[in-house]
# Entry
Amino acid sequence: MNDNDYNKQMNKDTYSLRKRAMGFIYDMKEYGFILPRIRVRITNDDRHNVAGWGSDKSIWIAEKAVGMSDDFLRQLVAHELVHAVIDYKGHDERCGLMKSAIETPMNKKDCFKHLSKYIKLNLVD
Ligand SMILES: [Zn+2]
# Structure
């Protein structure tokens, strides 16, 4: 499998999934999180048996995340961003955001509170 296989051909569902994921990143930036330009890819590769992964300023969201709630997808995007932006390796089962699996998704407020432990916020104004 090479890198191109990660770039799933866009159909209506994957296009809208990618758009939702990018919307959450935009929302985080607007809130003040300092984020570089992030590549967002949708994949049907489920060999990791997870809903996504992230590294080197790229995040991959599995196709099976289509139909997940906003809270789930926001938390998934935030989790993968931590891997992708600060090169966070592994997981912290004591952290609601960086544990290995999403059980009950957090709301936006809690998600951003956890995210701010890893990603700097621009607190000007
Ligand atoms: Zn992870």
Remarks:
- The helical segments are 12-31, 70-86, 108-115.
- The chain has a mean pLDDT of 89.
- Strands lie at 39-43, 52-55, 58-62.
- The longest strand covers residues 39-43.
